[in-house]
């Protein structure tokens, strides 16, 4: 059977049941406003409307309860029985019953459903319009309450971002001023970019469906209204977020990074108020590569420093870089690695600083350079004369013994 034919059959069956129900209401002497509310409830649910006493019992209220008490009880029950919060199998059914009871009471109160006398035609039309408006308002409030039930207010948001530090700042600690923007969901429209109005959708006139012609135009199919999403309520762009569904909040924080930060460390910054949100920061530390400092896997700071080979041989003082700046260090021709105590990196944040290991790389000039060769020859000659002249030096004593042995060797050869 085609979908168009099925729609016609369902329509006629529902229309017959609706007319029978209206006839029963007329026979029992129900006033015109009451009949109007009853037939509206029948059209919406397909069943007889909820009894007034049953509606008050569903909300746990006495009929003498005020409008404020009615609304408060309804919101509390919606938050309790919403299927997203309540895992009970009948949570969905209870939600429908709660909303149905609230709408029924609102329609009775706003439409003066307890009036016994019939009004004239103008008054009846006014009552019907007021009832339609109250019904739309009740639906809008129900949707808002369900949204609030699913969107629990978090005490604050945490914004995660990366921060790059130089190796010196990571070792010694530093203070940085961080600026940025935090994008969050709009609380007014709950990220939808729209707000629900207390009036029927202008496209489907509140039915939630539009008719689509089919089968030569005399049968039709129903499909959900694209403007309201099928719930029959009018939408408008959210003014708070200009229809975007999210807001952007600028922040500026001055943050102190303790000494001893490492690659991959995370620094949590307490939340502060930014407009309607509390925003905390979670800072992931990245260390920038350094031209000569290296922090090894054991947390030891190292550096390789080229030095003049003759200065190294002579035990001269040289300048070496440290995280605190340049520092003098005396060379020793018997050593290539030097340990500077307390000049390295802390083993953990806020801990004492470790040692700094400096490896020197003696560099000598090109031996083929003429100027260098001449200077070396002159240095050797000068130092040799000085060594021979000083009897306490091993080189002088060696030179004298070697000279005597050579002379005796020549004499034996001549004999």
Q: What would you note in describing this structure?
A:
There is one protein chain. With 415 residues, the chain is α+β, with helices and mostly antiparallel strands. It folds into 5 domains: 31-150, no CATH class; 153-191 and 246-289, HSP40/DNAj peptide-binding domain; 194-237, no CATH class; 294-363, HSP40/DNAj peptide-binding domain; 370-414, no CATH class. It has 10 helices and 15 strands. The protein has helices spanning 3-27, 32-45, 52-59, 67-81, 91-111, 121-150, 167-172, 309-314, 370-389, 394-414; strands at 157-165, 174-185, 194-200, 209-214, 219-224, 233-237, 246-257, 266-274, 277-287, 294-295, 301-308, 317-322, 325-330, 337-340, 356-363. It has a 4-stranded mixed beta sheet. The protein has a 3-stranded mixed beta sheet with strand order 1-9-8. β8 (266-274) and β9 (277-287) form a beta hairpin. α2 packs antiparallel against α5 and α4 packs antiparallel against α5 (91-111).
Radius of gyration, whole Å: 46 Å
Mean pLDDT value: 76
Count of structural domains: 5
Q: What's the story with the biggest beta sheet?
A: 4 strands, mixed
Structural class assignment: alpha+beta
Question: Which strand order does the major sheet show?
Answer: 10-11-15-14
Q: Rough shape?
A: rod-shaped
**How many distinct beta strands?**
15
Distance between the termini: 141 Å
SSE inventory with pairings:
Elements: H1 3-27, H2 32-45, H3 52-59, H4 67-81, H5 91-111, H6 121-150, E1 157-165, H7 167-172, E2 174-185, E3 194-200, E4 209-214, E5 219-224, E6 233-237, E7 246-257, E8 266-274, E9 277-287, E10 294-295, E11 301-308, H8 309-314, E12 317-322, E13 325-330, E14 337-340, E15 356-363, H9 370-389, H10 394-414
Parallel strand pairs: 1-9, 11-15
Antiparallel strand pairs: 2-7, 3-6, 4-5, 8-9, 10-11, 12-13, 14-15
Helix pairs in contact: 1-2, 2-5, 2-6, 3-5, 4-5, 4-6, 5-6, 9-10
